[in-house]
Amino acid sequence: MSPSESISVFAEGTFEEQLKELLVYTTRGIPDEERNSLLQSLQDAVKTDNASLDEDRRRTAFELVLKNVKSVGQGTDQEIEGFFNLLHAHLFTLWQVDSSETRQHVAYLLNIISSAPSNISLIKYRILFNLFNATPRSSALRPTIYTTLLQVAAGNGDFESFALTKSDVEQWLKEWNVSAEEKSQFLKTIVDTLVQTGKAESAYEYRILLVHTLPSSSPESRSAAIDTIVAALRIPTVFDFDTLYNLDPIIAVRDHELFPVIQIFLRNGFPEFRAWADAHAAVLESYQLDSAQLEHKIRLLALSSLAFDYIGRDLPYSTIASTLQIDTSQVEEWTIDAVRAGLVSGKLSQAAQHLHVYRSSARKFEREQWEALEKRLLAWKAGLASVIEIVALAQQKGGNVAEVVQATQLVQ
Length: 412
Prior knowledge:
It is a single chain. The protein is mainly alpha-helical. The chain is 66% helix and 4% strand. It contains 21 helices and 3 strands. It has helices at 15-26, 32-46, 55-67, 77-94, 100-114, 121-134, 141-156, 166-175, 180-196, 200-213, 219-234, 241-245, 248-251, 259-267, 270-279, 281-286, 291-308, 317-324, 331-340, 367-396, 401-411; strands at 314-316, 344-349, 354-360. Strands 1-3-2 form a 3-stranded antiparallel beta sheet. Helix 1 runs antiparallel to helix 2, helix 2 (32-46) runs antiparallel to helix 3 and helix 9 packs antiparallel against helix 10 (200-213). The longest helix has 30 residues, at 367-396. Residues 4-10 have low confidence and may be disordered.
């Protein structure tokens, strides 16, 4: 289910007739005397000598109906959804979408909807999604509505049903007419919900967004930055420390005891981490960081950096073993782990005891990496020029396919 799904509102009859229909729905299951009294109150509220009701009387009549909404009501899923669609339509017609009255009424309805029994979760989600879509894209109501959705889904263990994407969230944050603090709070809710539902890896990308939205000097920024550093170290699949290191709020906590670890994971290798870990075992323990897991990660990063310098060439097993401080017999196992992590691509040769590197990820991309890339591009350009020359020669001689194939292999 995604926020793009919505149900159109189709309602016939006059304003008075529609309000009566809504009120009748809310009175299902109550004594006739009480129901009749409520209907009479509505009739009195809408009674007028004029041909049409003025806005104040319409609002008073609507609030009479709204006050009687105590639950999602007794009806089929279609009836429940239709009831709330019509209710929301009148609400947004009678008041400006971001008025204080609308905020108050929406908050009341969100509480009613979210507190409904968990066995009707699907219809609750549809009502909330419909309400979300009924509000303008810039409305300040949207983060409140979606926060309720997240909380309901987390409570029911249904978060997997949501097609929430980082690109959607980024677009919403650009559109919503809310303060930076409210945007940050919304992102924090997403992070907390994902962590609560066991989605630490998905939560990490929203942690990065959250850090982006906070002023570097604020206490909230420092707390979020430290939490993000801990998450980056703790999550086995996070290997991009360059993006993290370049965030101003992260730089702002360079006095923190874990900051040196980020620098090690960005620029150094296993020996440097081992030395730091031996001297700061209590720090790792206080943040519940597994030293063995961090050793595994730093070795993979070290292998990736090493392989980056050997792209298109053969990397000896002995060099890998020396860099990672492992036995040569373990090289293939570590290389396979790096391939699975998406850090390295290549072909192992047991006979030749080397890894022919096709591709590798650089931990950081600075002047040194740009110069290496320039050299490879120039070599590729020269090789391509040679291929073009040989192909042209082959065509002049009637198309010597063998020469063309050999030229292509030379470029590879």
